[in-house]
Q: What sequence folds into this?
């Protein structure tokens, strides 16, 4: 009997585990980076918290409702970081030819890129995201049932895949353009700035851009509106908002395909 | 005279370095413009349908504050880890120590160069502000004058905070986390984006005892006619922070110089 290679998910787990083991060798650095990440997230939360507190509500959404949007986004962002944090190093990997090595090894190159180092900040983000999601979900005016909890979990995973899809699509351009970090940075700025708010308060054009061009809406606002029963505030058909988790997965699948098609344009800088 | 020339040579290095890494410098300008556009959209959306000012602030002031705050922060708040940390890690700090001007003077000069190199941010910031209709005039001629003085003091406070932070690299070589936390705490507590007057009392109290507000919030508050504790007090607090931070830097450096380990050659 021929041994079959482990599944992609298993490979990912093994490689992440390896990265984790090497990252915890530098114990102080590991702890400080994780704590730094928590600080970072806490300050971002405080920023939005101060605004919503001062205003009482935003576009008819109360403090706890806005916090719930934030909770979904925070946990989704944390999982996204664990999966895709290394995309920020795509520029260097391609330009300095580290990608040569990925092509020679018997593991999918994208998988190798994603797991080249363990994303230590994701540990802090995960702790922060999990606590925040639990607290805000408990506080949110939602009648929790098995179904709605399952939808919430799906929404969080979908949120992670959605953000990862956007970042992976952009990072894939590196093979042709040799640079993607400015665009990653811009997309990240948009996600961070608009992410926490009920997007229904934005001008319609902006809200539609955040639905169809840079699809942030599926990563927090839509599933939150569905769970909170605030479907009047949706600016798209209800089914589209409900389908947010699926859209995250579909976009990620498309992004993976795109990465592989762009990968063919890689030209080694030579060594 | 010779000292001045030596210091100016360091300032020159500080100006040239960021523009040697042109892509990342241009990127920071692009992100600044984007942030100004985004915040003007967010503030207007949050204020939509509201006639009354919130915390004494109407939508024009909120947008105008964000434009000016982001612009000032982009020019003044240079990264602390470019200078000392990298040089400690690579062992170049040994060369710095043999130079004929003190390490603190050297670094303040280099940082001043970084600020000068970041001045295009002012044009980008104010230009973008103009495009989104987010420029607001100072409340009075007196406020404009006070703003100019306060901005000068804010420059001093900001550079000393950066210097103090980079001096910690003598103890903590490899901690990206501290840098990240420092960056966000500074942005938040300095009131660079969000005026401190929006904060609940207890948070204002915390921000009030930290030096960060003297590096951005004070000049902005003066500009918008709300100097914390009156103009004289506001400027006095800034001057006091300059003295305290300068003292702290000197003290930390006096301890650090016995810890210097020059790595490699």
A:
């Amino acid at each position: 009997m021929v041994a079959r290679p482990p599944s992609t998910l298993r490979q990912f787990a093994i490689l992440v585990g390896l990265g984790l083991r090497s990252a915890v060798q530098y114990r102080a650095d590991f702890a400080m980076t994780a704590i730094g990440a928590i600080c970072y997230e806490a300050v971002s939360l405080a920023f939005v918290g101060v605004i919503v507190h001062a205003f009482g509500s935003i576009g008819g959404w109360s403090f706890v409702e806005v916090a719930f949007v934030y909770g979904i986004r925070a946990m989704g962002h944390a999982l996204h970081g664990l999966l895709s944090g290394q995309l920020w190093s795509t520029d260097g990997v391609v330009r300095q030819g580290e990608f040569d090595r990925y092509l020679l090894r018997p593991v999918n190159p994208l998988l190798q890129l994603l797991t080249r180092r363990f994303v230590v900040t994701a540990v802090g983000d995960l702790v922060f995201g999990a606590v925040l999601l639990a607290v805000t979900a408990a506080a949110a005016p939602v009648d929790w049932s098995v179904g709605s909890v399952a939808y919430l979990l799906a929404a969080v995973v979908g949120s992670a895949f959605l953000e990862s899809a956007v970042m992976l699509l952009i990072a894939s351009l590196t093979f042709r353009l040799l640079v993607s970090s400015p665009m990653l940075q811009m997309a990240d700025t948009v996600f961070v700035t608009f992410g926490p708010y009920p997007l229904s308060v934005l001008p319609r054009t902006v809200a539609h851009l955040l639905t169809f061009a840079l699809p942030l809406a599926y990563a927090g606002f839509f599933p939150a509106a569905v769970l909170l029963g605030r479907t009047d505030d949706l600016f798209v058909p209800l089914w589209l908002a409900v389908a947010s988790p699926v859209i995250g997965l579909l976009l990620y699948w498309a992004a993976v395909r795109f990465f592989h098609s762009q990968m063919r344009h890689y030209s080694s800088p030579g060594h | 005279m010779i000292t001045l020339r030596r210091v100016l040579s360091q300032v020159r290095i500080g100006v040239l370095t960021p523009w040697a890494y042109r892509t990342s410098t241009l990127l920071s300008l692009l992100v600044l413009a984007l942030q100004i556009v985004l915040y003007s959209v967010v503030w207007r959306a949050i204020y939509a349908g509201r006639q009354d000012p919130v915390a004494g602030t109407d939508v024009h002031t909120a947008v105008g504050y964000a434009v000016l705050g982001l612009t000032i922060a982009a020019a003044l708040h240079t990264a602390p880890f470019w200078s000392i940390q990298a040089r400690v890690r690579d062992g170049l700090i040994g060369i710095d120590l043999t130079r004929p001007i003190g390490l603190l003077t050297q670094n303040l000069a280099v940082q001043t160069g970084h600020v000068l190199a970041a001045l295009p941010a002012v044009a980008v910031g104010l230009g973008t502000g103009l495009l989104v209709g987010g420029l607001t005039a100072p409340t009075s001629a007196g406020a404009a004058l006070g703003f100019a003085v306060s901005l000068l003091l804010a420059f001093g406070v900001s550079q000393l905070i950066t210097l103090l932070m980079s001096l910690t690299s003598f103890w903590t070589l490899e901690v990206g986390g501290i840098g990240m936390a420092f960056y966000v705490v500074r942005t938040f507590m300095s009131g660079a984006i969000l005026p401190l007057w929006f904060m609940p009392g207890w948070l204002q109290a915390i921000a009030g005892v930290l030096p960060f507000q003297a590096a951005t919030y004070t000049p902005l508050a003066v500009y918008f006619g709300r100097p914390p504790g009156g103009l004289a007090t506001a400027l006095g607090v800034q001057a006091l922070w300059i003295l305290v931070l300068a003292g702290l830097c000197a003290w930390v450096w006096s301890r650090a110089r016995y810890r210097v380990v020059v790595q490699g050659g």
